[in-house]
Write a structure and sequence with these properties.
Mean pLDDT: 86
Order of helices and strands: HHHHHEEEHHHHHHHHH
Low-confidence stretches: none
Helix content: 55-70%
Number of helices: 14
Strand content: under 5%
Amino acid sequence: MVARIQKRGLRDFDWLLAILAIGIVCFGTIQIRYAQPTENFWVKQLIGLGIAIVAMLAVAFNDYRRLLNIAPAFYIFGLLLLVIVLIPGIGLKINGQRAWIRVPGIGQFQPSEFVKVTTAMMLARYFGKHRTSALTLKELAIGGLILGLPIALILLEHDVGQVLTYLPILIVVLFLSAIKMRVVVAAIVLGVVLLPFAYWVGVKTHLVKNYQQERINVILDPEKADRRGFGYNTWQSILTVGEGGLLGAGNSSAYSQSSLKFLPEPHTDFIFAVLAGNTGFIGCIIVLLAYVLLLSRLISGAKRAPDRMGMLVVMATVGGLTCQIFINVGMSLGILPVIGVPLPLMSAGLASLIATFIAIGFAISVQLRRFVN
């Protein structure tokens, strides 16, 4: 089997997928450079890209089934990282969130990004077995537990935005695992009905913090939002997007919102706003089309997977990436609350970059083994 894979390796390797991912990162690094010209975030991003490519190749040229068979070990290791980050003195607290670990020589590392991959692996392993009947209540409960453990720990970090990016992973896996349609419909209806009630309860019990309420109010009623208070981030992002126009203000603009440091976190949360300001509407469309092509390559690879486990782990990645892209772009355009979700492959961040490339490595590994039993 190894000989066959080595022979097919270069031919069946999804070069387009890898090149798309690397290209988006490189283009994002340019935006990071102009967003924070006095910092070295762009240098760290390039170093991270090198590490990420090595990680991607390591996963791609390993049998994904072997990796998924030891998914419980990776999953437990990920949970331990989430516990460690909560320990004062080890976990770094930034903007009210204790979600990072300092790595000497590299900087900050966010374990929850890595755990997203291990959770997808665990779900794919559990639901990937061959089946001829619909999911049972017990299986649904176990799937919820697999997702619930990391989510509970991340909530202790006060990182609600990260939690939202985990949910599509389970949703996609369940949807592709013979879940009964009446369960899906019931869940959607129940969610729509209970969401306002849950928000009301959260407000009354103070589980939904005041700043979280204000961020939601900024979106619901932008005209009354305090543009120097809780509405500041959203308003500055909208201004940055607007100044780009059709073709962009140009990367060399010394008077852009990001260059003048009006736009907060331009290299992470609002990198799409920086992109819009520099390259305009046309540049944004090109980047979004690149994302669409990347996601379509992942879906195409999932369709050709030799087994359910391979298909599920790739589609879980698609669900997670799609959610992140939607939330980040929505934040930048002012149609979603600011919850600190990075734009995959473009935002500065070592953990997110490596985790995304590992997920892409799984997709390539699945494709390399589609003719091997």
